[in-house]
Automatic annotation (TrEMBL):
PROSITE patterns: PEP_ENZYMES_2, PEP_ENZYMES_PHOS_SITE
PEP-utilising enzyme C-terminal domain residues: 518-867
Enzyme class: transferase
Protein name as catalogued: Pyruvate, phosphate dikinase
Presence of keyword Manganese: no
Domain Pyruvate phosphate dikinase AMP/ATP-binding per the UniProt entry, residue ranges: 55-291, 300-348
A family per Pfam: PEP-utilizers_C
């Protein structure tokens, strides 16, 4: 029989898979000698067994009895005891933390008898009955599924009846009455009575925690966060300590650094005379932890000291849960704190500065995707002045977002499904709201503090969040919110600034964020620690400048066709295509040449000494032609060609499968003058820059190549033009001519193609299309089902298909480098900016990726992580490595 129960003294932080994160860390803290109430953990293995059989095994029941015995000895208290009753909490805790998703029950062991004993023993009747009513509510909710609201309503009614301001005003008599009301709720609900036997309470609670692994919100959370269904949860059973013991007691949560900004220093909140989730649930507005310094200086010092110890021990920002019972401090949980992407960067950089971690570890601590969230726009300060500041709350999660207001998660979800941008506005949020929160641009609450549920979730999702905007009065019934005499209705636009906490009416314009401070240092490390280059796909100086701001290594792909879509160019392009003979093509070509050389000049000039790769014309010609009668009439007027002739010409260019038709270098073979013009334009730009003392090495890329003979033919065309241009001006130009690798046949014959090619660049979009036989423009009709049914693990146009397309890439790389062993090989399709794909590209020896400007920093970090892990894996063959280096960000 395997061991299914571990005392806190037996476990450690490395056992998170078996003990769950909470259990493993409770053990670790116990062994560090920190003040943790005694307890034990039922393992995730026991949970697996339970998921099969839906009951606790005999063996486990036995072990639980034993463990409770041990706990009684450790605490000098007795479960169901008549003199010193033992009260315990039953706490869920999976290997990967899922805050608030699963259930916990406090004060187990109380019943009609022990509540009296405890009241007498402590001379604190209020505390005893306050604990009892809490147990009744939590047990009813978690075990029987009775809604929390029905219990809350009783509390609210009692408070209203006596005009109390807070739950603290409830008297012993009130609490006793509430207890009996709560028992009534059980009766009315018809789900079962509250079991008086503590043992029965305990077992029901354990069952419920195991069951909670499969509750709806936990499933949604796992799906959203890609957490495996298999993990299961552990259960922690722990002696209670009491933050609701009186004014010298309390409960709180603290981060060792600010989770919103990353700033160093203890950051958190607590409530006096409160228990458990009161702080997070926003029952009362909590106080900042710093105020403890004045009210309980010794406890504060102790907390500070423990926080530092934990951070040093874990080498990571920690999120602590603590309780003060009559002046004595207890630690109830520690874990890696959730934080905003910008806080994550600052913390990682600071921890390196403090010598706690090295650069590589720091780089592995941030999910590449979260970088793109940091680059989200900020409100345009100028436009902001035109908008009305509604109110200000706490800046819980930075960002700037606008959307239409909805007051319930369901309404928000529905509006979002209908394509609206939504802002979820509530007095507070709870785990049931998770679906609505996921779809919201921003989350606003009127109650709660920086560690409230809304704040934590918003930060976790990198959604903009403002909480505790207490001037806001949400009226769920009428679906409005009032603020300073103004009314916000469902569907109204508001703008939320999560950095300042400000809420504005209307939709405020945004502007691009920039890379500065810690992020810039962090991305520099990423560059130093990666092997792959990160280039950008850019067709305009504006895009290129953006990418350069993000420190792109250069341009990996300029799509020249995009340059022809401006109206005056489109006209020339159309004249070119519609011309009847070579003579008629001359004039539009000359005009296009002039415009195109200007484009290239600008790009080269911006590039400085960085490389720019230009791809010659790729799409089928009919893309440039008018598509409907109205356009035909207009073009006819512009060009003087009759509509009939136009229609004829358009018809003659029509193809059944244009993506497989007359495009790419096939155009070079049939209309060589177009490629010649483009090469001449490149050369004219190079020559002009040479005149300014700037040397440019042009890199010219040929699309759609499928054979060596074809590549050789086009290469010849291109090089002849280069030579002609440079001879005319008698200058020497270094250049390369490479091929897109996007045809399966090209991959299979890459050794031959490499003979006529100075570099390869995988066009993964076309390569994926042709490997699967999926038309890129038509996948929408079936791809979603393929992914839903698991026939495809992911959209192969977004994440590289390793087994098929990846295999072709490997073949092409191997063959290509057999011919030229230092052949540069890039990737310039959509997947070039995808972190998972980049991990694969590192393994197969890709030289560089090229992606859209905003993906550049994401790809940069992904490239660094891929390289760091690659090196770690190589080393791991010889010796075991830190798990952190291989698996991603454990908390
Ligand atoms: P979650 O995973 O949702 O955070 P926890 O198991 O951490 O749930 O429990 C929530 C809160 O209940 C804790 O933060 C703590 O305040 C309180 N709690 C849990 N166990 C105990 C205990 N043994 N004594 C006092 N408070 C407890
Ligand atoms: Mg909870
Ligand atoms: Mg907790």
């Amino acid at each position: 029989m395997t061991k299914q129960i571990y005392d806190f003294s037996e476990g450690n932080m490395k056992m998170r898979n078996l003990l769950g994160g909470k259990g493993a860390n409770l053990s670790e803290m116990t062994n560090m000698g920190l003040p943790v109430p005694h307890g034990f953990t039922v393992t995730t293995e026991a949970c697996h067994e339970y998921q099969q059989t839906h009951q606790l095994s005999k063996h486990l029941l036995n072990d639980i009895d034993q463990a409770i015995q041990t706990l009684s000895q450790q605490t000098n208290k007795e479960f169901n005891g008549t003199s010193h009753p033992l009260l315990i909490s039953v706490r869920s805790g999976a290997a990967i933390s899922m805050p608030g998703m699963m259930d916990t029950i406090l004060n187990i062991g109380l019943n009609d008898q022990t509540v009296v004993t405890i009241a007498e023993l402590t001379h604190n009747e209020r505390f005893a009955y306050d604990s009892y009513r809490r147990l009744l509510a939590m047990f009813g909710n978690v075990v029987y599924g009775i809604s929390e609201a029905s219990f809350d309503q009783v509390l609210t009614d009692t408070k209203n009846a006596h005009h109390y301001e807070s739950d603290l005003d409830l008297t012993v008599a009130d609490l006793k009455q509430i207890v009996s009301h709560f028992k009534n709720i059980y009766e009315i609900s018809d789900k079962g009575v509250f079991p008086q036997d503590p043992k029965e309470q305990l077992l029901a609670a354990i069952n419920a925690v195991f069951d909670s692994w499969n509750n709806h919100r936990a499933q949604i959370y796992r799906r959203e966060n890609h957490i495996s269904e298999e993990l299961g949860t552990a259960v922690n059973i722990q002696e209670m300590v009491f933050g609701n013991y009186g004014e010298n007691s309390g409960t709180g949560v603290a981060f060792t650094r600010n989770p919103s900004t990353g700033e160093a220093g203890l950051f958190g909140e607590y409530l006096l005379n409160a228990q458990g989730e009161d702080v997070v649930a926003g029952i009362r507005t909590p106080q900042p932890v710093a105020t403890l310094k004045a009210s309980m200086p010794d406890t504060y010092e102790q907390l500070l000291d423990i926080a530092n110890k934990l951070e040093t021990h874990y080498r990571e920002m920690q999120d602590l849960e603590f309780t003060i019972e009559d002046g004595r401090l207890y630690l109830l949980q520690t874990r890696s704190g959730k934080r905003t992407p910008s806080a994550a960067v600052k913390i990682a950089v600071d921890l390196v500065g403090e010598g706690l971690i090295d650069q590589k570890t720091a780089l592995l601590r941030l999910e590449p995707e979260s970088i793109s969230k940091m680059l989200h726009p900020e409100f345009d300060l100028h436009d902001l002045k035109q908008h009305n500041l509604l109110t200000t709350g706490l800046p819980a999660s930075p960002g700037a977002a606008s959307g239409q207001v909805y007051f319930t998660a369901e309404d928000a979800k529905r509006a979002s499904d209908a394509g609206q941008k939504v802002v979820l506005m509530r007095s507070d949020t709870s785990p049931e709201d998770i679906e609505g929160m996921i779809v919201s641009q921003a989350i606003v609450t009127s109650r709660g503090g920086m560690t409230s549920h809304a704040a934590v979730v918003a930060r976790g999702m990198a959604a903009t969040g403002v909480v505790g905007a207490h001037e806001l009065e949400v009226d769920y019934e009428r679906k409005i919110a009032k603020v300073k005499g103004q009314i916000i209705r469902e569907g109204d636009w508001v703008s939320v600034d999560g950095t300042s906490g400000n809420l504005y009416s209307g939709m405020v314009k945004t502007r691009d964020a920039t890379i500065k401070g810690e992020l810039s240092a962090f991305l520099n490390w990423a560059k130093q620690n990666s092997k792959m280059g990160v280039y950008t796909n850019a067709d305009t100086p504006k895009d290129f400048q953006k990418a350069l701001d993000f420190d792109a290594d250069g341009i990996g792909l300029t799509r020249t066709e995009h340059m022809f879509f401006k109206p005056e160019r489109l006209l020339q392009m159309r004249r070119l295509i519609l011309a009847e003979d070579l003579q008629g093509r001359k004039d539009p070509l000359a005009k296009l040449l002039r415009m195109q050389q200007g484009d290239f000049y600008e790009l080269y000039k911006l590039a400085g000494d960085k490389e720019v790769t230009i791809r010659l014309l790729d799409p089928p010609l009919h893309e440039f032609l008018p598509h409907d009668e109205k356009e035909i009439q207009a073009v006819s007027k512009q060009t003087g060609i009759s509509p009939e002739l136009l229609r004829d010409r358009i018809n003659s260019l029509k193809e059944s499968n244009p993506m497989l038709g007359h495009r790419g270098d096939r155009l070079a073979v049939t209309f060589p003058d177009i490629y010649e013009m483009q090469v001449q334009a490149i050369m004219n730009a190079v020559i002009r820059l040479a005149g300014e003392g700037i040397t440019v090495q042009p890199h010219i890329m040929i699309p759609l190549t499928d054979s060596q003979a074809e590549m050789a033919w086009v290469r010849d065309l291109v090089t002849k033009q280069i030579k002609q241009s440079s001879n005319e001006k008698s200058i020497k130009v270094q250049y390369t001519v490479g091929t897109m690798m996007e045809m399966p046949r090209a991959c299979m014959t890459a050794d031959a193609i490499a003979e006529s090619s100075d570099f390869f660049s995988f066009g993964t979009n076309d390569l994926t299309q042709l490997t699967f036989g999926y038309s890129r423009d038509d996948v929408g009709s079936f791809m979603p089902k393929y992914i839903e049914y698991g026939i495809l693990p992911a959209d192969p146009f977004q994440t590289i298909d390793v087994e098929g397309v990846g295999e072709l890439m490997k073949i092409a790389i191997e063959k290509g480098r057999k011919t030229k062993n230092d052949l540069p090989i890039g990737v310039c399709g959509e997947v070039g900016g995808d972190p998972k794909s980049i991990e694969f590209f590192e393994e197969i020896g890709i030289t560089y990726v090229s992606c859209s400007p905003y993906r550049v920093p994401v790809a940069r970090l992904a490239a660094a992580q891929a390289h760091i892990r690659h090196l770690a894996r190589q080393k791991a063959v010889k010796q075991p490595v830190q798990p952190e280096l291989v698996s991603f960000f454990v908390d």
